[in-house]
């Protein structure tokens, strides 16, 4: 016969697992704002990243920091930083930030594959590896086109998840893009897609219309939470004028962690 104490323990474990299973993450520059956002709803987020290899501040309990090798300028400090992150509990590693974008990491697909195999793949026995985060551009040599070339040269990279960014005009456009990204990932035996930046294109410098942004976010969260191939996502972003206002969680932030 199972004791009451064991049943209680099992229940607590189940609750803890459910609380930490959120796909939602915090894309941030200021770690203190992640803590503020997390306090507003326990278990509302499970992970965070800051486009960097170092977390630059303490994360809330239950929120995994995921280090990123942003681009070629970051490789000198990479090994030391990623080892520290793994020691501190990181279970995933993110690849380059928009290597298909000339104003971001700006790395050709073949070169990116070579760098990925050199700097990230060696940690595949200690963490799940996530691809470089690509844009949603439909131009040749960018977006999914870039990713396909990258993967053709990175077959032995041990990638577990595909990372993408999306900015556009509606939830319908986001859904369409994500379905295409998921289909693309499946061709390389990648079972999940991470949307590590997303927002309406009118909100990239701050929320322009709270009601519109709220409706978009509610629809996006509902769809991504229910889709088995969406591994994780992070709204752009955990900062003032976005999910917070003057250091406090605003209405949009409450929707995000609800």
TrEMBL record:
<protein>
    <recommendedName>
        <fullName>Asl1-like glycosyl hydrolase catalytic domain-containing protein</fullName>
    </recommendedName>
</protein>
<dbReference type="InterPro" id="IPR017853">
    <property type="entry name" value="GH"/>
</dbReference>
<dbReference type="GO" id="GO:0009277">
    <property type="term" value="C:fungal-type cell wall"/>
</dbReference>
<keyword id="KW-0732">Signal</keyword>
<feature type="domain" description="Asl1-like glycosyl hydrolase catalytic">
    <location>
        <begin position="25"/>
        <end position="256"/>
    </location>
</feature>
<dbReference type="GO" id="GO:0071966">
    <property type="term" value="P:fungal-type cell wall polysaccharide metabolic process"/>
</dbReference>
<feature type="signal peptide">
    <location>
        <begin position="1"/>
        <end position="18"/>
    </location>
</feature>
<dbReference type="Pfam" id="PF11790">
    <property type="entry name" value="Glyco_hydro_cc"/>
</dbReference>
<dbReference type="InterPro" id="IPR024655">
    <property type="entry name" value="Asl1_glyco_hydro_catalytic"/>
</dbReference>
<dbReference type="InterPro" id="IPR053183">
    <property type="entry name" value="ASL1"/>
</dbReference>
């Amino acid at each position: 016969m199972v004791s009451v104490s064991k049943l209680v323990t099992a229940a607590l474990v189940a609750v803890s697992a459910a609380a930490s299973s959120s796909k939602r993450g915090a894309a941030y520059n200021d770690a203190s704002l992640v803590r503020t956002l997390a306090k507003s709803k326990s278990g509302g987020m499970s992970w965070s990243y800051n486009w960097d290899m170092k977390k630059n501040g303490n994360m809330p309990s239950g929120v995994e920091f995921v280090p990123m090798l942003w681009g070629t300028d970051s490789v000198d400090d990479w090994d030391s930083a990623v080892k520290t992150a793994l020691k501190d509990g990181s279970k995933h590693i993110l690849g380059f930030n928009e290597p298909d974008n000339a104003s971001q990491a700006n790395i050709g697909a073949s070169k990116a594959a070579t760098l990925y195999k050199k700097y990230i793949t060696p940690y595949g026995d200690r963490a799940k590896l996530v691809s470089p985060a690509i844009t949603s551009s439909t131009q040749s040599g960018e977006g999914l086109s870039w990713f396909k070339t990258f993967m053709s040269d990175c077959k032995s990279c041990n990638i577990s998840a595909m990372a993408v960014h999306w900015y556009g005009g509606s939830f319908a456009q986001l859904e369409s893009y994500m379905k295409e990204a998921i289909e693309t990932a499946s061709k390389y035996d990648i079972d999940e897609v991470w949307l590590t930046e997303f927002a309406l294109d009118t909100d990239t410098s701050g929320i322009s219309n709270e009601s519109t942004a709220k409706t978009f976010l509610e629809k996006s969260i509902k769809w991504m939470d229910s889709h088995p191939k969406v591994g994780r996502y992070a709204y752009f972003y955990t900062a003032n004028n976005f999910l917070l206002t003057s250091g406090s969680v605003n209405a949009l932030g409450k929707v995000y962690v609800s």
